[in-house]
Amino acid sequence: MNPGKLFIFSAASGTGKTSLAKALVEQTPNVAFSVSHTTRAPRPGEQ
């Protein structure tokens, strides 16, 4: 198995990180999206 590349999109809230990641997944074969993690408490409506 060949090692892959890891991309980390880190920026302030509302700057388009998710939009950028989704576009990359849609336009690039063999790219997957990983679930992110935060240490803050969930906001109302979040799981």
Helix/strand layout:
Layout (H helix, E strand, L loop, with lengths): L16 H11 L20
Outline the structure in words:
With 47 residues, this protein is an all-alpha fold. It has one helix and no strands. The chain is elongated and about 40 Å long. The model has no long low-confidence stretch (mean pLDDT 85).
Low-confidence spans: pLDDT under 50, at least 5 residues?
none
Distance from N terminus to C terminus (CA atoms, Å) equals 35 Å
- Biggest sheet overview: none
The helix-and-strand class reads mainly alpha
Cα Rg: 13 Å
Q: Total helix count?
A: 1
Order of helices and strands: H
Question: Based on DSSP secondary structure assignment, what is the total number of beta strands?
Answer: 0
Mean pLDDT across the residues is 85
Oligomer: single chain
Q: What is the percentage of strand-forming residues?
A: under 5%
Instruction: Tell me the overall shape.
Output: elongated
Helix fraction by DSSP (H/I, runs of at least 4): 10-25%
